[in-house]
Amino acid sequence: MTIGIPKEIKVREQRVSLFPAGVSALTAAGHTVVIERGAGVGCGIGDDYYARLGARCGTREAAWAPEFVLKVKEPVASEYAYLRPDLLLFTYLHLAADKPLTERLVKSGCTALAYESVELPNGALPLLAPMSEIAGRMATLQAAQLLSSNTNGNGKLMGGVTGVLPCKVVVLGAGVAGTNAAEMAVGLRADVTIMDVSWEKLQRVYFNLDGRAKTRLASPELIREELATADVVICCVLVPNAVAPRLVTREMIAGMRAGAVIVDVSIDQGGTTELSRPTTHEQPCIVSDNGVLLYCVANMPGAYPRTSAEALTNATLPYALALANNGWRAAVRSTPALLNAVNVSDGKVYCAPVAERWGLPAAPRNALTK
Fold first, then answer.
1. d(CA 341, CA 332)
2. Which pTM does this prediction carry?
């Protein structure tokens, strides 16, 4: 099979969907890899290096022409023209937050599998996990930087110093991103509280961090109470395949102190606050009427492209090989995790939360196994 690797063109997105190790593995399995020229430059990987590993470097059209295309981020409007019935697309999609893309995928007739929808029997999301790790760790580092008065933050050092209290950091969501955000904040000596509706997740985080972070069961009343005195709020709430719940209201933000920072890691799925809207690495923050900074960059890990691209390839490669070796229909029949990943195919939506979100009929996934 021929696999295409287009260059990512979302604003300041420098990741590449296939690290060199992935090229080696696919070519060794007898497949052809076509990479758009310059696709790896943001990760420090030149075309010559890819060529030495057996990849062909070509134009954007050449990278989109194969029957199987691997990307990092969802297609943007200028890429919609490449969507077609014979295309297998494997990438992050987040369709519950993107109606135009959902409609275009349906109209095109292509088959689109979402990284974030690959789900193991135990509920784990193996292709979302590495980017959640990076986004969670990055969220804390970004918040610490935004607290600086140079960026209109409240001027507090996250960990404090002798005789001065540390910042209060509230993390909403105790999944992979939230746990990593809390670990980083604890490492910076902040006063950390992590909130979730799952007692089991809170227990795991509490013991993993040796009790160095406080834990609270989340409710609207307790979230409002915690946010009123928070210097940093990191939103890491995830409902798989569905739009993120708006747990942080305008009223809650209005009750926060000027110069406080909110990092909304959930923005890919629509965001956790009522003020959240996607921003870019070039203009990362929204400022509320009362001076709260909201960081809502929709491709956070793109700021660390080399680490992100290598981690992504580590996670996606076994599934990409399964799709290339067997074809997508056979692969989804034999691999339940990949069956869960089918969002759209042949003009139908197979992801129930996406279909419900946009008022479309949901096709049964088990029909794909027959």
1. 9
2. 0.94
Residue positions counted in the chain: 370
Q: How many CB atoms lie within 10 A of CB 18?
A: 29
- The pLDDT tens digits for 125-172 are 999 999 999 999 999 999 999 999 999 999 999 999 999 999 999 999
What is the Cα–Cα distance from 365 to 348, expressed in whole angstroms?
10
265: three-class secondary structure by DSSP: helix
Name beta bridge partners: 192. Answer: 169
Q: Outline where the chain has alpha helix (H).
A: 20-28, 47-52, 60-64, 99-108, 129-146, 176-187, 199-208, 220-227, 250-254, 305-326, 328-334, 336-341, 352-357
Cα–Cα dist 179/199, whole Å:
14
What tokens appear for 80 in the block? 């919609």
The residues annotated as belonging to the active site are: 94, 268
Q: What is the pLDDT of residues 231-256, one digit of tens each?
A: 999 999 999 999 999 999 999 999 99
Angle at 141 between CA 115 and CA 286, to 5 degrees: 80
- When pLDDT is cut at 50, 70 and 90, the band that residue 369 belongs to is confident
Q: Which CATH superfamily is domain 2-117+305-369 in?
A: NAD(P)-binding Rossmann-like Domain (3.40.50.720)
Of 105, 125, 106, 103, the closest CA to residue 116 belongs to 125
Fold observed for domain 129-295: Rossmann fold (3.40.50)
Query: Helices (H) and strands (E) in the chain — how many of each?
Result: 13, 15
